[in-house]
Design a protein that fits this description.
Chain lengths: 121, 1156
Amino acid sequence: MMSTKSLQGCRILYVEDEPLIAMDAEAMLHELGCEEIVIAMTFEDARAAIQDNQFDLAIMDINLGGGKTSLPLVAPLRRAGTGVVLASGYNSGRPEDDTIRLEKPFDEEALLRALRSALSE
Amino acid sequence: MSDTFSSNDFAVVGVGASAGGLEAFQELIAGLSPEQERAWVLIQHLDPDHQSLLPELLARRARVPVRLITDDLALERGVVHLIPPGAALRLEGDRLRLDSFDAPRGLRRPIDTFFESLASQFGARSAAIILSGTGSDGSLGIRAVKEAGGLVFVQEPKLARYDGMPKSAIATGAVDLVLPVGDMIAVLDEYFDRRAGVEPIIENDAEFITRVTKHIRYRTGHDFAHYKKGTLLRRLARRMSVLGVPSPTSYLQRLITEPDEASRLVRDVLINVTSFFRDPQTFDALRRDVIPHMVAGKGRSDDIRIWVPGCSTGQEAYSIAILIDEELARVDARPSVSVFATDIDVEAIAVAREGVYPNAITAEVPQHLLERHFASTPNGFRISSAMREMVRVSHHNVISDPPFSKLDLISCRNLLIYFDSELQSRVLPIFQYALRPGGYLFLGPSENLGDFANDFGVVNQNDRIFTRKAGPSRALSMPLYPSLKENDTQSEQNRNVPAIEPANLYERAVLARHTAPFVVVSGSRQIVYASERTSRYLELPHGLAKLGLFEMARRPLRAPLSGLLASLSDVGEIRIRPIDLVIDDRPVRLLLTAERLPDDNTLIVFQERFDPGSEARTTGEQSEDGHYANSYVHDLEMKLDAAHQTIRTTVEELETSNEELKSSNEEMMSMNEELQSANEELSTINEELQIKVSELNTLNDDQRNLIESTRIATIFLDAELRIRSFTPAIRRYFRVVEHDCGRPFEDLTSELDGEPLISLCQETIETGQSTETERSLRDGGADLLVRLQPYTSKDGASTGVVITLTEITELKRYQRRLEETEAHARLSLNEIAELYRITPQAKALLDPNLLMLRVNQRFADITGVPVEGHIGRNALEVIPQLGWELGASVREVFENGNQRESCELPIRLRGEQLWWEIDWYPVRRGDEIYAVGINIRDVTRHKNMEVELRRLMRELQHRVKNMLANVTALINRARREDGDPRAALTTLVRRTQALAKTHNLLTQQNWRPSRLIDVLSPETTAIYGPDRVSMRGPDLRINARATLALGMAVHELATNAAKYGALSNGTGRLDLIWARIDEGEGEQISFRWSESNGPPVERPARLGFGSQLIRTTIEKSLGGRVEIAFRESGLEVKLWIPYERATEEEDDVHEELAGL
């Protein structure tokens, strides 16, 4: 099992339009030892963050409200070598899609497992 | 006429028959193979007034087509052509022509007529067959066929039902083969096969012809060297084919080994139909050298007597008569002329008597003679009556019948060639005997006198004209006359004069040459035997032949003989009487001796005395009773003169009546022939009728069996409605027994219900129409169909009624059942139609080609075409939207018969997207699927609702999960809170409730923008009232995101104010002010939360969760700005939110996310 140390020093992008959830997740990531966390609550903010920074991992809620989704961001992130975790309240998924999923609501353990998977890709 | 013989041309076979011919025809025709290539023509004597059944009867036996001849019908190979009744048939080229008969019935000779035209048109390619019949029709025709090179067959007379015609044909000598009918076809086939081969072989064999002619000359004396080679060739080929000897070598062999063959061939070569002035230069010689001498010096009282034996059809006799008549006219003399034309062929004689010849004789008779001696008739040329009277035609056998006598001319041409030398040596003495000295004998070009040349002088050797030398007539060794053979003297003669044995040779020699001539007479003075050399004393009298002694004795001998015989009385008595008389102009003393023989016959010996001694002795004897004798002689001479006168008169009278008798005899013969032919016709009809009757019997049996086997009750009524007959089955419905036949139908007791049938019967007879009526039995046991049909005879006349009764009880029952079923079916059909009408489904019925059989209104509503506009149209054409799917499914159902249900299909119809649910189901008729039904239900609404529902479910799930995530986040927050866990839980509960309130609001608005005031008031004015909380700003509507963000911010601020701020005491105030502003950064909503009059405010050491939440939501989520100021008077929080972000209507992305 990978130690939490491996998450230390990781630059993480967290994209979530729900403020309460975003704040909670940020707290969890801090607790997991992540130091550099960028929170984006809109599609535009997320896109801007990707352009300006290099992330090791990205956790993105799919539905960003306002009719926007985070899916168009997956490919650019991958190209930049970022491990991607998609979070969603929907419990179904396309089997052929190998993107790592995180089902909302999630706890620390689920978050950690998803992040590790994404990192080991 | 076709002379050459080639296998390419078809041959024509004429078949003639009369009585008994039907049977022979049938046998002949049955043997004909369909492959044979000859044309057949059947000629039968038919009753002109009677429709012949011949075609029908023959066609039944034949494997080849049998055709009744119509005028101008073309002969066809492989076909049997039949003569129709009442018409004469002839050929014109290859066309069959029908003529009406000119001759009266009985004299008609259709077979001869046809054969003659067959011979002239088809020559060597013709064949003639004579079958059973009486009379002699055909006998002339076969000679014509034979002469033309055709083949002649005759049915074996023993096997023919009537042998008259065959025998007559055989007698002509023109017949090639006599055969049973059954063998004819095979022989004919062989003959024609060979014939085609033989001719070319011998044609190029000059040596063969030479050898044959040489041999013939050697055998018969006939020299064919000067004959036309072509004719000879054809005759030879013919003969060889008939014999079946196709090789020249073997035929020569045969000529040498079989003596008869040479004469057969000669006959074949010379056979000819006699013609007028045959060999014209010979007749010229006759006219020039003979006739003037014959006529010279003949006066009115003189006779010219001419005999034409073997006259055939009389042309030669008439030719001579014409020449004589011409000569008489020239010298203006009128002796009486008798031309005796005789023949053994009665047919030929009949023609000669008739004296009518075909138009073809214009080629033979010079024009001036034709005009003078013939009259043109529709039938041909008729000899003038003057010539006809001159010529006496009679039946006579030159060999066996007594000859004519004192003749001036005998014309016997081409008869001797048929005789062998023995016969010739019998005939020539007869001619010598019959001719008067100086009379002429006229023979055929190849005929000679042979041994008797010394008896005749030569007038013209080239033309074979001879003259009888003076001198005694030769003794005739005539066989006994036929009339004698038949009366009782025959036995007499046989007893008395036994046949001369060879042992008696010497006696015969003595008797013949060294004794006096003698005769033996019977008691009735008939000559029963005569020695040689009696002709000096006896001669055959003129007229009917008689053998009486006194008739035959020369006139001067009659009286002495009479006296001599009268004086004899006893047996053994001998009387001698000398007499003087003049014989052949010389005085003769004759010693007549008579002796009564023991058998009652009398011998008379004639002894002539020339020696002076005997003369003296007789003179002496005479002187003994001279005076008496002289006066007696004188007396006798007187009597004799008177008797002579009487006899002459009598003889003349007799001759006259004899002529009359002759002509009536001819008439009688004609009548006889007429009767005979009528008889033949009758027997033909009789045969036909017999066959017909036996067929009818069979048919009757068939019919009876049919009627009885059908068991259909039938009753036949005649025109008076009396019972004619009935079938046994009728007894069930009428009380009728066998002897009721003939009783009126009305009298019958009927078991039928309803009015009697009698009026219907009358109606049927009157109208001629059949009627049907249904009746029941009185006891109700059965239903019946009664049919009344007019009974019609063959000509269509109604002569009665046929009533048939058919039981239809079962039928009626089935009919009723059928009607019920039909009503039921109609009801079902109505139900179906109704169902189609009211069902909410669109329905259609398609055949295997997708053609629509039935649709309902709903279906029409879909397609926009009227209901009736669909029927028979292709479904794809009407609803192309269903396209491939429809066709494939229909075919699938037709193939496997499985129903297909509730198949949903998206359809675009008239710009509208619809969902259809479709059923396909097979519609069977018996085991067969004859149509496929389609139900279409429009499920668009259900489908849309379902989609919406699914969307809602997903939405709900999303929101619930989101809410749970929010709650989880709040719980985590509380977990991280230091201090009193109870306080933390209270905070958590409150936050959760605030969240729920905001959600309530959003749900009420259906997540549409909500009024800002509604977001603010639950946490503020609703709790603290307008006295402490004021709100001021425009009525704005903000979207869900802004609602949630502001809702949480207000909750945190209100909670903080209640705990530490203006709302924690009883005096503090809260003012909420908002506005839409634009300060150069775009339109914004500015919102200010300002507290006053509360407890003193202290800046907190650490940023609390509330501030953190406000910042996060306003800044991060809405892109706004937050200013928080801790003033002395109270907390003041200012928010700026981009107007756009807070109010824009958010697109629904859930659909897109549904699959994630």
